[in-house]
């Protein structure tokens, strides 16, 4: 594999090797995969493979291996730093979107299906994936290749932890079945391996009963330290089903807010989330403005749809996104988050940017385990930066500031999460 990426090879010509039918040298197809979500690396590949079947994917990868052609898999291209780009061949897996089987607590799907599509299929059976990232239109194979964490990960681990078994295409072109007890080394290396150990063709995932109702509460808090302390205080019996700390730039200043939710049925009694009981004392001491809402599960999963529409209209959606994401040890979470945010100028996050801060249990992150700090609890701190459209200088400054974030994390024993730019 290997991407052989360069910053811009727009004028690179294609070779003339006879290719399988799913492999194209069409200029439009090649340029369509030349950019990723990060928007800072442009690589026009010689070839694009768009398999509609697992056999076609195998044929394309075998052909690439025979010709010593570097290749990378691509789901929805929602990566940074050119990880889904190659000067050789990009394998677009979006066509592998079949639902192969669904049972009382599992579903087997092609790697190209999106979590949004999977959610709709599972909902017809009263089921849901236990973890969905904040953007549900990513591919199953794509997020499993990184781990995939979200607001329910403290309870359920990463999306990769819901995988029961997989069908994997190795870099040599072999199709192999694997799971926790079948070729476990391959299974572990593919999950969270960013596509380097093999290409996920199909995955069987654990499902849970879908909630009938989502009760949501959002509270502003006073600063980064309060954002961490309030969440830590909720890790006992009062912990909600979904928990995230969020930091945004609002009117030129910082707003720190907790986004919490409980998944219940329509007959559930009152709770502090719904407003029928007082907030826990340890949370009330931090809380400022409070907003409560109710949603269907699907509405909650797609809660970012209005923001996405607004960002697309303003041109921010396709702007560069020099993201940085780190895992921090619990013992140093407050100080590290304060240092990261304290040195962050609002312009280096961007008007459309967002910082996520929330806890995870190390023991729950089992499959394809990313490199984590020591301790039972670790904290994700993700700077989802968004440069102003057309402002290359701002994008470079954001990328340079990522080095500062990484130094702070490493100084306290933290590690990097691969969703960020290289």
Short description:
The chain is α+β, with helices and mostly antiparallel strands. It has 12 helices and 19 strands.
List the helices and strands and how they pair.
Elements: E1 23-24, H1 27-32, E2 47-49, H2 54-66, E3 71-74, E4 89-92, E5 99-102, E6 106-110, H3 115-123, E7 127-128, H4 140-144, H5 153-156, E8 163-169, E9 175-178, H6 184-190, E10 199-206, E11 208-209, E12 213-221, H7 224-233, E13 242-250, E14 253-264, H8 281-284, E15 287-295, H9 297-301, H10 305-314, E16 324-329, H11 333-342, E17 354-361, E18 377-384, H12 392-411, E19 415-416
Parallel strand pairs: 2-4, 3-4
Antiparallel strand pairs: 1-2, 5-6, 6-10, 7-11, 8-9, 8-10, 12-14, 12-15, 13-14, 13-17, 16-18, 16-19, 17-18
Helix pairs in contact: 7-11
Q: In order across it, which strands form the biggest sheet? A: 15-12-14-13-17-18-16-19
| Helical content class | 10-25%
Q: What's the overall average pLDDT, rounded?
A: 90
Q: How many domain regions?
A: 3
Based on secondary structure, the structural category is alpha+beta
Annotated CATH topology of the largest domain: Vanillyl-alcohol Oxidase, Chain A, domain 3
Low-pLDDT ranges: 3-15
- Please give the alpha-carbon distance between the first and last residues: 18 Å
| Beta fraction | 25-35%
How many alpha or pi helices? 12
Radius of gyration in whole Å, from Cα?
21 Å
CATH architecture call of the largest domain: 3-Layer(aba) Sandwich
CATH class (first level) name of the largest domain: Alpha Beta
What is the strand tally? 19
- Bulk shape: globular
Query: How would a textbook summarize the main sheet?
Result: 8 strands, antiparallel
- CATH superfamily annotation of the largest domain: FAD-linked oxidases, C-terminal domain
């Amino acid at each position: 594999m290997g991407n052989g990426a360069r910053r811009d090879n727009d004028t690179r010509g294609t070779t003339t090797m006879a290719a399988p039918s799913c492999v194209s040298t069409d200029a439009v197809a090649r340029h369509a995969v030349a950019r990723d979500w990060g928007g800072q690396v442009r690589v026009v590949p010689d070839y694009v493979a768009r398999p509609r079947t697992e056999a076609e994917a195998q044929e394309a990868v075998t052909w690439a291996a025979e010709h010593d052609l570097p290749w990378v898999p691509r789901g929805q291209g929602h990566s940074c730093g050119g990880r889904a780009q190659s000067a050789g061949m990009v394998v677009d897996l979006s066509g592998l979107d079949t639902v192969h089987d669904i049972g009382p607590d599992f579903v087997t799907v092609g790697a190209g299906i999106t979590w949004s599509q999977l959610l709709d299929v599972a909902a017809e059976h009263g089921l849901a994936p236990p973890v969905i990232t904040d953007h549900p239109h990513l591919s199953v194979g794509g997020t499993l290749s990184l781990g995939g964490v979200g607001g329910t990960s403290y309870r359920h681990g990463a999306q990769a932890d819901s995988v029961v078994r997989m069908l994997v295409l190795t870099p040599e072109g072999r199709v192999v079945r694997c799971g926790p007890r079948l070729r476990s080394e391959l299974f572990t290396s593919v999950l969270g391996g960013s596509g380097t150990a093999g290409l996920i063709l199909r995955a069987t995932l654990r499902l849970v009963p879908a909630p009938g109702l989502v009760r949501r509460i959002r509270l502003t808090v006073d600063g980064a330290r309060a954002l961490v302390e309030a969440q830590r205080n909720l890790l006992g019996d009062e912990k909600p089903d979904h928990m995230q700390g969020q930091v945004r730039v609002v009117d030129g200043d910082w707003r720190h807010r907790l986004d919490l939710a409980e998944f219940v049925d329509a007959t559930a009694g009152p709770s502090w989330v719904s407003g029928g009981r007082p907030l826990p004392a340890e949370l009330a001491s931090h809380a400022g403005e409070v907003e409560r809402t109710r949603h269907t599960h699907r509405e909650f999963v797609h809660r970012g749809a209005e923001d996405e529409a607004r960002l697309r209209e303003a041109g921010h959606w396709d702007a560069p996104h020099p993201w940085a994401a780190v895992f921090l040890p619990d013992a140093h979470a407050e100080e590290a988050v304060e240092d990261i945010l304290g040195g962050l100028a609002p312009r280096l996050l961007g008007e459309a940017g967002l910082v996520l801060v929330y806890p995870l249990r190390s023991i729950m992150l089992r499959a394809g385990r990313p490199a984590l700090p020591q301790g039972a609890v670790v904290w994700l701190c993700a700077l989802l930066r968004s440069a102003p459209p057309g402002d290359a200088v701002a994008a470079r400054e954001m990328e340079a500031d990522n080095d500062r974030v990484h130094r702070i994390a490493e100084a306290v024993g933290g590690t990097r999460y691969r969703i960020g730019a290289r």
